[in-house]
Design goal:
The protein has 104 residues and is mainly α. Helix content is 76%, strand content 0%. The chain has a domain at 51-98. It contains 4 helices and no strands. The radius of gyration is 25 Å and the shape is elongated.
């Protein structure tokens, strides 16, 4: 390949593809969206239950002078809070990164 051919090859811009997500492309999109919403609800309920149980474990470990139990309760509280943040912000996070990906 000579230099002129390489310049001609690099000068041509790549083809653009304009495909965007749509909600009517496949049947069953609405029920799948409802199922995902239900999973988000279940996830938040599970995070709340984990937070309550971990707080109880933390309190029992602290009052019984059991540092290992107290540490596990603290870790559980942090994990439950992190899970709630991720589950609650999932739509926003996915929307943000989908917007970043579509800008390229």
């Amino acid at each position: 390949m000579n230099l002129a051919a390489a310049r001609a090859f690099l000068a041509d811009p790549p083809p653009t593809i304009n495909i965007t997500p749509n909600s009517d492309g496949l049947p069953g999109i609405l029920p799948v969206g409802k199922m995902v919403g239900a999973l988000l609800t279940y996830g938040l309920i599970a995070a709340l239950a984990g937070l309550v149980i971990s707080a109880i474990v933390w309190a029992v470990g602290g009052n019984s002078s059991n540092p290992q139990l107290s540490h596990r309760g603290k870790s559980g509280v942090l994990i439950a809070l992190g899970a709630a943040v991720l589950i609650g912000g999932a739509r926003m996070l996915i929307g943000f990164f989908a917007g970043v990906g579509s800008s390229f």
